[in-house]
Amino acid sequence: MKIHNFSAGPSILPESTIKNSAEAVLNFAGTGLSLLEVSHRSKEFVAVMDEATALFKELLDIPAGYEVVFVGGGASTQFCMVPYNFMKSKAAYLNTGTWANKALKEAKGFGEVVEVASSKDSIYNHIPKGYDIPSDADYFHITTNNTIYGTEIKKDLDVNVPLIADMSSDIFSRPVDISKYTLIYGGAQKNLAPAGVTFAIVKEDALGQVDRHIPTMLNYKTHIDGGSMFNTPPVFPVYSALQTLKWLKDMGGVAAMEKINIEKAAVLYDAIDSSRLFKAPVADLEDRSLMNICFIMNDEYKELEKDFFDFATARGMSGIKGHRSVGGFRASTYNAMPKSSIQALADAMKEFEAKH
Length: 356
Ligand code: PMP
Known about the structure:
- The chain is of the alpha/beta class.
- The chain folds into two domains: 236 residues, 3-Layer(aba) Sandwich (Aspartate Aminotransferase, domain 2); 103 residues, Alpha-Beta Complex (Aspartate Aminotransferase, domain 1), CATH 3.90.1150.
- The protein is built from nine helices and 14 strands.
- The chain has a seven-stranded mixed sheet with strand order 2-10-9-8-5-3-4, with helices on both faces. A three-stranded antiparallel sheet has the order 11-12-14.
- Helix 4 links the parallel strand 3 and strand 4.
- Helix 2 crosses helix 6, helix 3 runs parallel beside helix 4 and helix 7 packs parallel to helix 9.
- The structure holds 4'-deoxy-4'-aminopyridoxal-5'-phosphate.
- The site of 4'-deoxy-4'-aminopyridoxal-5'-phosphate has 11 residues, from helix 3.
- Catalyzes the reversible conversion of 3-phosphohydroxypyruvate to phosphoserine and of 3-hydroxy-2-oxo-4-phosphonooxybutanoate to phosphohydroxythreonine.
- InterPro entries: Aminotrans_V_dom, Pser_aminoTfrase, PyrdxlP-dep_Trfase, PyrdxlP-dep_Trfase_major, PyrdxlP-dep_Trfase_small.
- Homodimer.
């Protein structure tokens, strides 16, 4: 039976990423060595890092003046690297979910943090709008895709202060106007690679403006100057990231991917919206994520939740349980998720409904 991987992260990767990575574990670039035991300073791996960085820039059309770095620590380490490197005295945050809230809390140790708006009181079921950002904030931080709640800011915002975004769960899902951002970061374990590598797209001239001492490993400049090789980089996930980037280029790049993602998400949202049993907690179409599609049972069918979970699991659906903090269901439909798997889930929902 085919298993459809709807996991929120680590999550589905292109078949070619998994196959090429597996082959390199056995014999990396014809060296006769495993990718797992090769020096990061070998010419073969330096070529991987260079190609991954170049292709990353090419696919996102990253303009001059920006650098891409691959580091460890996950997006969670970025929550402190952001204020370390960019907060002089005051920063503004939009609270759209658990991860946004964690980033905001971390920043509080560095200066004044203004929460410009929050959707916490409505269990983060929408993206707040119509807020004011203090003009003296050193930056405004957003989380473009809220992995747990299934909301997404799908347009690049125009704001009055430097913009910083956590794009952990929607990077490479659509074209991004990088020039509108000072920093974009994310863990790679959704649209890019296995867990273990974190990316950051940094506007170089925005660095060096804070007075505090920045620990060497937490300073973006360290990793830019070192070409992501200041210390031992996560060799395996960087190799896998390169395989995913090559796949993405073959697929036609991020503009083509956005089209496909819109079509894929429509299949599932249509199944939810036309259903008697299920409903989407995120009502506003504009706010609905194309990457994490949340759905819950309608109140009168609440007791069927476990039955549906078992029914779907028996049909090969894996990872559809909602995050433990919200319950219900969540189907993560990242770039590598084929439309056929989403159709299979929509069909299972219809089949289940016909029985009830
Ligand atoms: N931000 C977002 C939007 C996430 O989805 C996650 C993890 N799922 C994180 C940050 C934390 O990432 P990490 O586990 O790499 O620290």
